[in-house]
Structures are given as C-alpha cells and as structure tokens.
Amino acid sequence: MESLQDKLTRLKTQKETDVWYLVKQELNFMRVATLVNEWKKWKDSKSSLTIADYIEGSRLTDTNYRALTNAYNYGLMRNDNIVSGTSSKPSYKVADSTPVWEELSKVNFADVNTISNIIDRQIEKLYISNPYDDESKNIRKSYRLFIVPTIYAILIELKEKYNISTITKEEFILFVETTKKFADYTETASLINEYRERRDSLDSTYISKLIKGFNNRVHLALKNLSLLRIDKNLSLSLEEDKIPLIRERLDLYQKNVDRYENLTSKEIVDIQCSTSSLWNCFEENNKDVSNIESDKKVSGGENIIFYGAPGTGKSHDIVEYINEKAEKYFNRKFSNDTLNSEENIFRITLYPDYEYSDFVGQLLPQKDGTFEYKKGIFSSALQYAQETDDPVFMILEEMSRANVASVFGDLFQLLDRKEDGSSEYGINNSMLAEMIYPELSKENINKKVITLPSNLYIIGTVNTSDQNVFAMDTAFKRRFIWKYKSTDVDPSTFKNNPNIKLFKEFNIDWYHFYTTINTFITDNLNLSEDKQIGPYFIKFNTNNNSKIHSLLRDKLLQYLWEDVDSIARNNYSNEDTIFSKDIKSFSTLYEKFDNQENIFSDTLTMNFETKKEE
C-alpha cells in the first residue's frame, strides 16, 4: 500500500489530466439530452449545415455542440467507428442514438421519478477511461473503472472503518479521482483518513499547488446522481436513506468484480448504451456482458472448408459464400480482387513452416530495446470481430500445406460452436488476451476468457492433391463443415475454354482436354480424384495461341510430371502413363512440347482423339 508521503510526492510530477477526466463542456444530463435531440434532428434532416452551425442556429442557449462528447459518456449516443478503433474523430454523421435515448425520448417530462431513475442508472455507468476519451490509450490508459461504484465503496469504507461520512473537494481531487481501479478503494480510504490525521502538519502551500493543478469537473457529472449529496463546498457524502440500497448494489458489483474489470472497449460501451443497470447486467440469466445487445451482433459464425482438386474454383466459392452475407448485411458484393482490401476480411495462405506464433502473434524486439506484440491473423480477426457487430471473415488458404493442429494449438477448443455461432468453450491465453485487450491490467490478463464471437467466420480451402503434406486428424476435421468442389462444369456455360494446340495438326478445347486427363487419371492410372485437375487449374484470359502454349507448359506440365505421372511410373503393376515412356526427364518433356511434338502416351492420345470426335 502506498504511503501518504509517497502519494503526495508522486502527484507533484503527475500531469493535470492524469486523473478522472471529463471534457470541459456541459455535464447536466438533461441539457446534454436536449442537445442530443437537436443532433438527431440535424442527422435525420440531412442538413447541409455543419453540426456546429446547426446547433448555433437552434433555440438552445449557451450550449456548445462539443458537449455531445458527454452524450457518449452518458450512453445517449454511440459511435462504433471510434469504439472499434477504425476512427479517432467523433464524426457525428455516423454516430447513432441508443436504446437509452429512445427510452428517454418516450418519457413524459412530468414523470420526474422515471427520469430521475434513468439519470441515476446512466451516471452510475460512467467509465474512465472509455474509448471516446482521446487519452484512453495514453495518459489515462491505466484508469480502468466505473467511477460511481468506486466512490460508493470509498464512502462506505470511510464510514464503517474510520467513522468519516464525507469526502472534501480537496480529498476528492488528491485521492479519489487519482484512483485507477476499483480494487484500490480501501487504499484510497486509508489515505484520506491518514491525510485528515496529518493535515495540519502538511505544507499548505504545497497542497494548494497540487489541488490547483488538477481537474475537478467530475463533481458536475455526479451532481446528476440522486444517491449522492454534494454541498456548496463540493464535499461529497451518501444520502443516508440510500445507504442500504447502495450496499446492496455494491454486493452485486463485488460479486462480479472480475468481469467488470475485464471488459473490452465494446463491452463497456454496450453496458453504457443499454437500458440495463450496471448492477444487474451480469445477473440477467447470468449472461456475459457481450450479449447485452446480442440482437445487434450478427450470429451464425461457422467453420467451413471448401475442398477439391486444384483449380476447381474454391476461391471463387469463398467469394460467393462471403457475398451471401455481404449482400444481406452491407447491401453490396465483393470481388476476389477486392477481398484483401476489405477491413472485415482477413486472408492468409498457409505454408509448411507456418506456425502458431505466425497465426496468433508473438513478442518481438524493437529498435529501442523494448518488446512489442506483433499480431497474427487470428488475433487481428478476433479483435476486430469483438469490436464490431458486422460479420468478420478469416480466410485460411491451403490449410493442408501446414500442420493445422499445431498452428491452432490451444485455439482448437474454440472451434466448437453454440447455436448462435459463438464458442461453446473458452480458453485462458494470457498472450492472446494481452494482444487483443491491451486496456486490461496485467493482473487481469490471466483471468480473461477468450471465445470466438458469433460474427466470426473461419473459412478454409484444402487442395485434395496436397492432403498428404500434413494430414488433418479426425477431431480437427469434425469441427468444420466440408464443402466439396467437383471438377465438373456445365460445358454449355463454361467460358474458360480456349482451343489448345497439343501438337502439330492436333487441336482440342480445354474442357475436353482436362476432362480426358481426369478420366485417364482415375480409370487408367488407378489414382484417386485427388490428383485430378479442375476447370480453373489454368485461368487463360486470352485466345493468343502463344500465350496459351506458355501457360500449359509452365503451369500444367510440371504438376502432371511430378505429382501424377511419377506415381504411375513407379507403380510397376500399371502399364499406362500420361506421357510417352520414351521421355525420361522433364527437360526432354519441356523441349518436345515447345517443338510441338506429341508428348503424351499412345493410350492418352487415343483418348484425346476419341473425345474430340464426340
């Protein structure tokens, strides 16, 4: 526990805004609510005026539009771009009103009791430092608390332990508004008691300078609260008849204190903007706070793998799958070319050396000698999904080329999904928690349970020709939906179908070529469909004969030689091969193909001729 002298010494070097800070604008709840009403008129009317000019021209007096910042603090407005970190500027055009505002706007203003209850409920949810605070990740990043429960706890502790019923303005500035977490309330009460006992022996000039240096506007917000008494000297005390109610609320708070201290930025804002009280937001059906506005967050997240032979169009199917969601939730479609630039789509191609640290993230040294976490695709996608209600897609291409069981590690447990798409089970992973919840204190990192939110979709592709590179175990496979992509297409609508000159005086279209090869692979070479090729194994995008020849030579021959024909050649019970047995090396194959000589076996050549005549 910090001593009084150490505390006062530290405050001397502490910045004046390194405290419970609220912007220097209107803090009267109903005046702020009236301002929100004007903002809503401005937004709904799509006025060409700026919000500043619109408010200035309204009938409101002595009200600055910047006071709308406190509408965020009071849960009357929200801006999810700021909450998710995609924007730091409070653009009022993209802000939204909240259920709290809708509730308040329907109340008859003569119903004083109902209005008072709403105000009390919202003031009790004041949180410092929340995402709307410009310094929440800098000067005030260590402040992580709902301030009213903390004040209640300090006042109860003072009354019960030290027989002190009030907190003076001086004590509030020095000790209360520099408290950084709820658990410190006992220390704060102890410091106030010691300060009173030693006040006469302390340097008054020094104390006066300290007090003058700090902000004390929080009192103006607390004046909205009926459970507290604030006198003309700004001394703070509890309303005596409210103490039993306050004790009851503190009991509820302390019962779930670990959960209150481990909230994400979005969860904090969800609480502030909900019509639930702070005290029972965890009590209703024992829900996690992230479910308070579950009707807003997209549900149905799933794990799905598109698999098939190379070139069957699995990536195209991913685009179609995502566009089903995009059209529903965004009223637009994406193309394969633009997927990588979409902020809610995270895409990576796996490879044999891809590891857990690449997937999740790792702690890396910086030039200044410090260490900093570098996020992997999983932690980036998970954090974004936690902070938005929209669908988020994590695409893992070529999953069979990496040891996915090792890549996922303990995250494997998250893949079991509930009906709404969220994880059935959570895990404790302090490294991951520290990366995606940087606002949490170190002591609470280990307590944070990681789960997949209902709006996170994990989409993979598997080339069946690669499935023996790293075989997936049955338990892993069972947690994915498997969508097979056939090599078959409708020839009447198939457009990737140029005419191919295989050798001198023999042409065949691509469709008949690749389907003949595929039949030969299974029927003559007795190999599985895994070794077949898909209709988009080569994307031609040209009718130029020279370019088509180059594409076949550079993309197809190597695969057929190394991954298909070599297996047939090593199978002594199999007399058939794709290429002529006279060709002993790939260099010879390459040269003969360039010279437009027939490189294929007699049996396959005959099959080409038969197919062409059909």
Automatic annotation (TrEMBL):
Matches recorded under Pfam families: AAA_5, RE_AlwI
Domain of life (superkingdom): Bacteria
Coiled coil (UniProt feature): none
ATPase dynein-related AAA domain sequence ranges: 303-480
Single GO molecular function: ATP hydrolysis activity
SUPFAM superfamilies: P-loop containing nucleoside triphosphate hydrolases
PANTHER family documented for this protein: 5-METHYLCYTOSINE-SPECIFIC RESTRICTION ENZYME B, TYPE IV METHYL-DIRECTED RESTRICTION ENZYME ECOKMCRB SUBUNIT
UniProt-recorded name of the protein: Type II restriction-modification system restriction subunit
Originating organism: Ligilactobacillus salivarius NIAS840
Lineage start: Bacteria, Bacillati, Bacillota, Bacilli, Lactobacillales
